[in-house]
């Protein structure tokens, strides 16, 4: 399936503040390397997979705008816009909203609770897997149930290294999810097992390589190439895999999924 996605070039990407455990202002981003890694991902999407890749203009002073998935959640033509926890990111929402409206995505609503879009919330078939604990509020799950009118599976994140749900959980198809169990609490693990028929477990070491921060069209998984053992688990489950380096973006706690907003 050819997907329709949105990306933001890394022109102003850098570590200008610290709002997660990966970010350290003294750990400078190599702009040339980051640009090449972003370009490589763009080329996988646009050339290898022939997906439709849209671009939004980056804004100076918003270094994390490159992580486009965090701006909103889209399901069934409805868009819930993010209400970022940290002031450093809050201005991003208005620019993404402007782009969405200009490109025909006008059925939007602003989240009332703290809610960080596709960073904490992943559509899996007719369900939404909703993370909370570090960035999004638990009450955002109820807001999504009302707005999208679907089942929302609430998952509590307990490991600060995996502050967004999409750093420790990947939706691979409508019935298959890969995740690192240690990122969420025991009750959440039980809820996930009841909600999703097929679960692939990753180790802590595999998760640290950001291979769970992945994009999938149900057949091909695009993700970090840092952990070959995790990529092999994906292949063993019947998926094709496109691995690519994203280590400059990991310095800011981001990866392939973070850089990619699905518009479908």
Structure description:
The protein is globular, with a radius of gyration of 17 Å. The strands form 5 sheets. The protein has a 3-stranded mixed beta sheet with strand order 2-1-15, with helices on one face. A 3-stranded mixed beta sheet has the order 3-4-5, with helices on both faces. By secondary structure, the protein is an alpha/beta fold. Helices cover 28% and strands 23% of the residues.
What is the element layout, followed by pairings?
Layout: E1 4-7, H1 31-48, E2 52-55, E3 72-75, E4 78-81, H2 87-90, H3 92-102, E5 108-110, H4 117-120, E6 121-124, E7 127-132, H5 140-148, E8 151-156, E9 169-173, E10 176-179, H6 186-195, E11 198-201, H7 204-208, E12 215-216, E13 220-224, H8 228-236, E14 240-244, H9 247-250, E15 261-262
Parallel strand pairs: 1-2, 4-5, 7-8, 10-11, 13-14
Antiparallel strand pairs: 1-15, 3-4, 6-7, 9-10, 12-13
